[in-house]
């Protein structure tokens, strides 16, 4: 089944199941009727890991050296011998394609290695997808089964996951302290339990007035084309230019759980303290898979602003 048709089937099924309401509006569906669009209420963290660990994870590809001398992107540079990894989680709201709409939001989480050298030219950055997770609201993890299956067939390996909190992008647990957790669902049992849900990653963070990175950093990293498993690439373009974008600088701890307790590669597992992050509402356009050089060439510079 063609990529677009697959997504239409998924959206049709989820429209019939939808029960919830959106929390931020989709403003790009009108201009992109044949593409997947949504408003993504998310938190992203940049985690410097040992460069050797990142190199091991992205094989057979190599890494592009991040432009740490560009102070508009890396005002504090990066620790010596490290490479950035982007960890994110949030709610995909008001998901649309053509005249169809998923009225209930879906959770989405990911771990990416940016600045991956897909073209082997030493300069063009891509995102290598380490892990992708999807799940439904209010503990209904199985709502992620169909989109996860379709995405995997079209080149993006996605795992069904359970998200905490169950109905929002993150939860407040104390003054200026928020949490978000992702657990990979291995054995789902939504009726009686027990379920097998090993930890994937946790975020524990607050708002900061001394950010480690700029808005432009996040825009540049999340908008790098994604390397798919089928020799193609995909643009998931994020725009941060709406009145309700509400960008907020974060600082906090990121815990990535290794294969003994979760699903993250052991090379990246660990607790990373005092990391820099960013929360915002992004308008997202998901383009169809395309040749990787084409995906890089068509990157919209407006999304990087």
Keywords:
305 residues, 9-stranded mixed barrel, disordered N terminus
Instruction: Provide the gyration radius in Å.
Output: 18 Å
Report the major sheet. Answer: 9 strands, mixed, barrel
Q: Given the helix and strand composition, which structural class is it? A: alpha+beta
How many beta-strand runs?
A: 15
Percentage of β-strand residues:
35-45%
Please give the alpha-carbon distance between the first and last residues: 36 Å
Biggest sheet, spatial arrangement of strands: 1-3-5-6-7-9-10-14-15
Overall body shape: globular
How many helices does DSSP assign? 5
Give the topology string: H per helix, E per strand: HEHEEEEEHEEEEHEEEEEH
Q: What percent of residues adopt helix (DSSP H or I)?
A: 10-25%
Mean pLDDT: 86
| Low-pLDDT windows of residues | 1-22
Q: How would you explain this protein's 3D organization?
A:
- With 305 residues, the protein is of the alpha+beta class.
- The protein has 5 helices and 15 strands.
- It has helices at residues 3-17, 51-58, 145-153, 215-222, 292-297; strands at residues 36-50, 62-63, 82-97, 100-102, 106-117, 126-135, 159-164, 171-174, 177-184, 199-207, 226-227, 233-234, 236-239, 248-256, 270-286.
- The chain has a 9-stranded mixed beta barrel, surrounded by 4 helices.
- The longest helix is centred in the first third of the chain and has 15 residues, at 3-17.
- It is globular.
- It starts with a helix and ends in an 8-residue tail after the last helix.
């Amino acid at each position: 089944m063609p990529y677009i048709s697959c997504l239409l089937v998924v959206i049709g099924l989820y429209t019939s199941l939808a029960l919830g309401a959106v929390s931020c509006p989709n403003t790009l569906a009108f201009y992109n009727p044949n593409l997947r669009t949504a408003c993504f209420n998310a938190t992203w963290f940049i985690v410097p890991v040992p460069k050797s660990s990142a190199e091991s994870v992205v094989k057979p590809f190599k890494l592009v050296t991040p432009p740490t001398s560009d102070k508009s992107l890396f005002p504090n540079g990066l620790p010596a011998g490290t490479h950035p990894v982007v960890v994110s989680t949030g709610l995909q709201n008001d998901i649309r394609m053509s005249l169809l709409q998923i009225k209930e939001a879906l959770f989405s989480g990911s771990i990416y290695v940016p600045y991956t050298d897909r073209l082997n030219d030493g300069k063009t950055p891509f995102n290598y997808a380490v892990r992708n997770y999807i799940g439904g609201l209010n503990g209904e993890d199985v709502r992620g089964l169909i989109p996860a299956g379709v995405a995997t067939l079209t080149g993006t390996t996605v795992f069904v996951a359970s998200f905490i909190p169950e109905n929002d992008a993150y939860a407040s647990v104390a003054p200026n302290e928020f949490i978000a957790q992702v657990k990979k669902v291995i054995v789902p049992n939504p009726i009686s339990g027990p379920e097998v849900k090993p930890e994937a990653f946790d975020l524990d963070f607050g708002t900061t007035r001394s950010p480690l990175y700029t808005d432009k950093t996040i825009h540049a990293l999340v908008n790098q084309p994604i390397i798919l498993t089928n020799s193609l690439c995909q643009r998931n373009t994020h725009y941060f230019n709406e009145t309700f974008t509400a960008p907020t600088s974060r600082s906090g701890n990121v815990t990535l759980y290794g294969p003994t307790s979760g699903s993250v590669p052991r090379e990246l597992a660990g607790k990373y303290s005092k990391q820099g992050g960013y929360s915002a509402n992004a308008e997202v356009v998901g383009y169809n898979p395309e040749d990787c050089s084409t995906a890089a060439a068509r990157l919209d510079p407006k999304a990087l602003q």
